[in-house]
Write a structure and sequence with these properties.
The chain is of the alpha/beta class. It is built from eight helices and seven strands. Helix 1 packs across helix 2. The radius of gyration is 17 Å and the shape is globular.
Protein backbone atom coordinates (compact mmCIF):
# COMPACT_ATOMS: atom_id res chain seq x y z
CA UNK A 1 0.00 0.00 0.00
CA UNK A 2 1.43 3.37 -1.07
CA UNK A 3 1.89 5.84 1.77
CA UNK A 4 0.82 9.46 1.31
CA UNK A 5 4.25 10.60 2.56
CA UNK A 6 7.59 9.06 3.60
CA UNK A 7 7.33 7.29 6.94
CA UNK A 8 9.58 9.83 8.71
CA UNK A 9 7.17 12.60 7.70
CA UNK A 10 4.21 10.62 9.01
CA UNK A 11 6.04 10.24 12.34
CA UNK A 12 6.66 13.97 12.43
CA UNK A 13 2.99 14.68 11.73
CA UNK A 14 1.99 12.27 14.50
CA UNK A 15 4.26 14.09 16.97
CA UNK A 16 2.61 17.41 16.08
CA UNK A 17 -0.82 15.81 16.41
CA UNK A 18 0.07 14.42 19.85
CA UNK A 19 1.16 17.86 21.05
CA UNK A 20 -1.84 19.68 19.61
CA UNK A 21 -4.39 17.22 21.01
CA UNK A 22 -2.49 16.43 24.22
CA UNK A 23 -2.61 12.68 23.59
CA UNK A 24 0.11 10.01 23.93
CA UNK A 25 2.34 9.64 20.90
CA UNK A 26 1.33 6.02 20.34
CA UNK A 27 -2.32 7.07 19.99
CA UNK A 28 -1.41 9.75 17.46
CA UNK A 29 0.68 7.23 15.53
CA UNK A 30 -2.19 4.75 15.44
CA UNK A 31 -4.54 7.48 14.23
CA UNK A 32 -2.07 8.41 11.49
CA UNK A 33 -1.78 4.75 10.45
CA UNK A 34 -5.57 4.33 10.28
CA UNK A 35 -5.78 7.36 8.00
CA UNK A 36 -3.21 5.62 5.77
CA UNK A 37 -5.38 2.51 5.62
CA UNK A 38 -3.65 0.36 8.24
CA UNK A 39 -5.01 -1.18 11.44
CA UNK A 40 -2.35 0.41 13.65
CA UNK A 41 1.10 1.97 13.52
CA UNK A 42 2.76 -1.39 14.18
CA UNK A 43 0.84 -2.77 11.20
CA UNK A 44 2.05 0.11 9.04
CA UNK A 45 5.64 -0.34 10.23
CA UNK A 46 5.56 -4.09 9.58
CA UNK A 47 4.12 -3.52 6.10
CA UNK A 48 6.71 -0.92 5.08
CA UNK A 49 9.72 -1.83 2.96
CA UNK A 50 12.30 -4.12 4.51
CA UNK A 51 14.98 -1.86 3.05
CA UNK A 52 14.69 0.59 5.92
CA UNK A 53 17.74 2.66 6.90
CA UNK A 54 18.27 0.31 9.86
CA UNK A 55 18.18 -2.75 7.59
CA UNK A 56 20.67 -1.14 5.21
CA UNK A 57 23.09 -0.28 8.02
CA UNK A 58 22.76 -3.63 9.79
CA UNK A 59 23.65 -5.44 6.57
CA UNK A 60 26.96 -3.57 6.38
CA UNK A 61 28.21 -3.70 9.95
CA UNK A 62 31.25 -5.63 11.10
CA UNK A 63 32.52 -6.41 14.63
CA UNK A 64 34.52 -3.50 16.00
CA UNK A 65 32.90 -0.87 13.80
CA UNK A 66 32.55 2.68 15.15
CA UNK A 67 29.80 4.48 13.22
CA UNK A 68 28.63 8.08 13.04
CA UNK A 69 24.88 8.63 12.44
CA UNK A 70 24.14 12.22 11.44
CA UNK A 71 21.00 14.14 10.47
CA UNK A 72 19.21 17.41 11.05
CA UNK A 73 16.40 17.48 13.66
CA UNK A 74 13.25 15.68 12.58
CA UNK A 75 14.91 13.42 10.02
CA UNK A 76 14.88 10.26 12.10
CA UNK A 77 18.35 9.84 13.57
CA UNK A 78 17.13 9.00 17.09
CA UNK A 79 14.54 6.56 15.78
CA UNK A 80 17.23 4.98 13.61
CA UNK A 81 19.53 4.60 16.62
CA UNK A 82 16.76 3.02 18.67
CA UNK A 83 15.89 0.65 15.84
CA UNK A 84 19.53 -0.42 15.53
CA UNK A 85 19.66 -1.19 19.26
CA UNK A 86 16.29 -2.95 19.19
CA UNK A 87 17.29 -5.10 16.21
CA UNK A 88 20.79 -5.93 17.46
CA UNK A 89 19.45 -9.42 18.13
CA UNK A 90 19.40 -9.90 14.33
CA UNK A 91 23.21 -9.77 14.51
CA UNK A 92 23.34 -12.07 17.53
CA UNK A 93 24.02 -9.08 19.79
CA UNK A 94 22.47 -7.38 22.80
CA UNK A 95 21.46 -3.79 22.15
CA UNK A 96 22.28 -0.87 24.44
CA UNK A 97 20.90 2.65 23.96
CA UNK A 98 22.61 5.36 26.04
CA UNK A 99 21.02 8.79 25.87
CA UNK A 100 21.79 12.16 27.40
CA UNK A 101 18.95 13.77 25.48
CA UNK A 102 15.81 11.80 26.38
CA UNK A 103 14.02 10.52 29.46
CA UNK A 104 12.60 7.00 29.75
CA UNK A 105 9.08 8.14 28.77
CA UNK A 106 10.45 9.80 25.62
CA UNK A 107 12.32 6.63 24.68
CA UNK A 108 9.22 4.51 25.28
CA UNK A 109 7.18 6.77 22.98
CA UNK A 110 9.78 6.51 20.23
CA UNK A 111 9.97 2.75 20.58
CA UNK A 112 6.19 2.68 20.20
CA UNK A 113 6.66 4.65 16.98
CA UNK A 114 8.75 1.75 15.72
CA UNK A 115 6.16 -0.79 16.80
CA UNK A 116 8.61 -2.09 19.41
CA UNK A 117 7.28 -3.01 22.84
CA UNK A 118 10.18 -4.62 24.73
CA UNK A 119 9.33 -7.25 27.31
CA UNK A 120 11.66 -7.05 30.34
CA UNK A 121 13.98 -10.03 30.14
CA UNK A 122 17.65 -10.73 29.68
CA UNK A 123 17.33 -10.56 25.89
CA UNK A 124 15.63 -7.15 25.74
CA UNK A 125 17.60 -4.11 24.70
CA UNK A 126 18.90 -1.94 27.55
CA UNK A 127 18.01 1.76 27.68
CA UNK A 128 20.17 3.94 29.93
CA UNK A 129 19.13 7.58 30.50
CA UNK A 130 21.69 8.42 33.20
CA UNK A 131 23.06 11.96 33.35
CA UNK A 132 26.49 10.36 33.81
CA UNK A 133 26.68 8.86 30.32
CA UNK A 134 30.18 9.24 28.87
CA UNK A 135 32.67 6.90 27.22
CA UNK A 136 34.03 5.73 30.60
CA UNK A 137 30.50 5.25 31.97
CA UNK A 138 29.50 3.16 28.95
CA UNK A 139 32.61 1.00 29.09
CA UNK A 140 32.16 0.40 32.83
CA UNK A 141 28.46 -0.34 32.31
CA UNK A 142 29.36 -3.14 29.91
CA UNK A 143 32.24 -4.51 31.99
CA UNK A 144 30.40 -7.68 32.96
CA UNK A 145 28.43 -8.16 29.73
CA UNK A 146 29.65 -11.39 28.18
CA UNK A 147 27.56 -11.56 25.01
CA UNK A 148 28.46 -9.46 21.93
CA UNK A 149 27.02 -5.98 22.19
CA UNK A 150 25.77 -3.20 19.98
CA UNK A 151 25.95 0.24 21.57
CA UNK A 152 24.10 3.34 20.40
CA UNK A 153 25.08 6.68 21.95
CA UNK A 154 22.73 9.67 21.85
CA UNK A 155 24.42 11.96 21.18
CA UNK A 156 27.97 13.06 20.24
CA UNK A 157 27.77 16.75 21.12
CA UNK A 158 26.61 16.06 24.70
CA UNK A 159 29.33 13.61 25.73
CA UNK A 160 31.69 16.28 27.02
CA UNK A 161 29.14 18.80 28.28
CA UNK A 162 30.34 18.16 31.84
CA UNK A 163 33.72 19.71 32.54
CA UNK A 164 34.64 16.69 34.63
CA UNK A 165 34.41 14.42 31.57
CA UNK A 166 37.37 13.81 29.26
CA UNK A 167 37.51 15.73 25.99
CA UNK A 168 35.35 14.59 23.09
CA UNK A 169 38.48 13.48 21.25
CA UNK A 170 39.56 11.32 24.19
CA UNK A 171 36.10 9.79 24.63
CA UNK A 172 35.75 8.80 20.98
CA UNK A 173 39.26 7.37 21.08
CA UNK A 174 38.28 5.31 24.13
CA UNK A 175 35.10 4.03 22.48
CA UNK A 176 37.02 3.09 19.35
CA UNK A 177 39.69 1.23 21.34
CA UNK A 178 37.02 -0.60 23.34
CA UNK A 179 35.02 -1.54 20.22
CA UNK A 180 38.09 -2.93 18.47
CA UNK A 181 39.25 -4.90 21.52
CA UNK A 182 35.84 -6.42 22.28
CA UNK A 183 34.37 -6.70 18.78
CA UNK A 184 31.58 -4.39 19.92
CA UNK A 185 29.65 -2.35 17.36
CA UNK A 186 29.20 1.26 18.46
CA UNK A 187 27.02 3.85 16.71
CA UNK A 188 27.18 7.49 17.81
CA UNK A 189 24.32 9.83 16.87
CA UNK A 190 25.42 13.32 15.84
CA UNK A 191 23.79 16.66 15.12
CA UNK A 192 24.21 18.32 11.74
CA UNK A 193 24.84 22.06 11.77
CA UNK A 194 21.88 24.22 10.74
CA UNK A 195 24.06 25.87 8.06
CA UNK A 196 23.43 22.71 6.02
CA UNK A 197 19.85 23.88 5.44
CA UNK A 198 21.20 26.78 3.36
CA UNK A 199 23.91 24.81 1.57
CA UNK A 200 21.79 23.48 -1.27
CA UNK A 201 23.25 19.99 -0.80
CA UNK A 202 20.95 16.97 -1.00
CA UNK A 203 22.74 15.10 1.79
CA UNK A 204 24.96 16.16 4.73
CA UNK A 205 28.57 15.04 4.92
CA UNK A 206 31.31 15.12 7.55
CA UNK A 207 31.88 18.83 6.98
CA UNK A 208 28.33 19.48 8.18
CA UNK A 209 28.69 17.69 11.54
CA UNK A 210 28.34 20.24 14.33
CA UNK A 211 31.54 20.20 16.39
CA UNK A 212 31.57 22.71 19.25
CA UNK A 213 34.79 21.03 20.38
CA UNK A 214 37.63 19.56 18.27
CA UNK A 215 37.23 16.00 16.98
CA UNK A 216 38.95 14.08 14.20
CA UNK A 217 36.05 12.32 12.48
CA UNK A 218 38.43 9.89 10.78
CA UNK A 219 38.24 7.94 14.06
CA UNK A 220 34.94 6.55 12.74
CA UNK A 221 35.01 3.51 10.46
CA UNK A 222 31.75 4.43 8.74
CA UNK A 223 29.59 7.53 8.43
CA UNK A 224 25.86 7.45 7.83
CA UNK A 225 23.72 10.46 6.97
CA UNK A 226 19.93 10.78 6.71
CA UNK A 227 17.92 13.44 4.93
CA UNK A 228 14.39 13.58 3.54
CA UNK A 229 13.92 9.83 3.88
CA UNK A 230 17.15 9.00 2.02
CA UNK A 231 20.23 7.37 3.53
CA UNK A 232 23.92 7.42 2.60
CA UNK A 233 26.44 5.08 4.18
CA UNK A 234 30.16 5.46 3.42
CA UNK A 235 33.52 4.43 4.71
CA UNK A 236 35.02 7.27 6.75
CA UNK A 237 37.82 9.18 5.03
Amino acid sequence: MQLSAPIYRLKRQAKLLARQNDVPLHEALDQMAIEEGFQSWSHLAASSSTETPAAIILSRLEPGDLILLGARPGHGKTLLGLELAAKAVNLGRKGFFFTLDYHERDVADRLSALGVHPVPNRNAMVVDTSDEVSADYIINRLEHVIEPAMIVVDYLQLLDQKRTNPTLEDQIRSLRKYAKARGTICAVIAQIDRSFDLSGKSMPDVLDVRLPNPLDLSAFDRVCFLHNGAIQVDQAA
